[in-house]
Amino acid sequence: MRLTHNLPDTGLFPPSFLRRFIAAAIDLVLCYATFFVEAVMVAILQPIPMHVPAAEQRLVANIVAVVVISLPVALILILPVSRGGHTPGQFLCAISVVRADTKGPTGLIRAAGRTLLWPFSFACLGMGFLTALRDPMRRTWHDKLTGTLMLLGPPPELTTTKCERCGYDLRGRLTMGRCPECGSVFEPDTVQRGIEQDEHRGRYC
Fold it and tell me: What is the pTM of this model?
């Protein structure tokens, strides 16, 4: 499937490092605030009974710690990127995260991998971030490892004229909403944008 931005002559630009830093700081503050709320709730609810054996107490404590750490990471850093293309901090700073190859949504696996590999860019005195200075699209190590890209502004709109599954030409099939070749469902608006973009290119190329 081919993904482009709204206009063929519109460029894609990476956000500045200052903008990325501010977005990351906002997300970290939100994560730490969530950690604090969870810690208070755990202290109030006391999920570890005192009468259970010490080994079981340690097991329960480890499970609670994993939940306390993973919940904010999933709700703030992973799920928003996989579904909407940005974390809360990135949204406030007008930054979006997309796939580097298609400029489309990252999906859950890439979003999770990018978040979990984010500390890797700090390795070797932050070389993962410094190498982005020489990259045309300012991609860090965790961007390259997960095939993602940060853009300034909202994610580009999806456009296509062919079926994602079988490659069937969907022009003239907008009212069907389903590929006549393989039966997969498609969005008519997506195909319409692809047709308009091809016509625009035909006039000005």
Answer: 0.69
